[in-house]
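I hope you will forgive my troubling you with a question about protein structure. I should value your view on which stretches of the chain appear to form regular backbone elements. Here, with my thanks, is the record as I have it:
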Amino acid sequence: MIKVSILYPYRENVRFDVEYYCTRHMPLAAKHFGSALKGWSVDRGLGGGEPNSAPGFVAAGHFLFDSVEAFKQVFEPVAAELVADIPNYTDSVPQILISEAVINV
């Protein structure tokens, strides 16, 4: 199982519409990914490691797939549409992490 994480770096005055992301963008992606998608989630950054510090990321979206190939097969045809939607919810430049989900409880 692999996890594709889209991480949105925090900066002062960053714009991130969590409601839009959770109710429009992520469901749109999930619809396009269809049965290849095994699960998805959203995290909203609250703080960093030090007390009262800013989070490293304002938000993160996560998608689970059986393999990198399964992800690429469903992402590549809709990548332009999903990327074009980014300005509708944030001015943060996302970072992508593809990882192996070693433990998923």
Notes: The helical segments are 18-33, 68-75, 79-85.
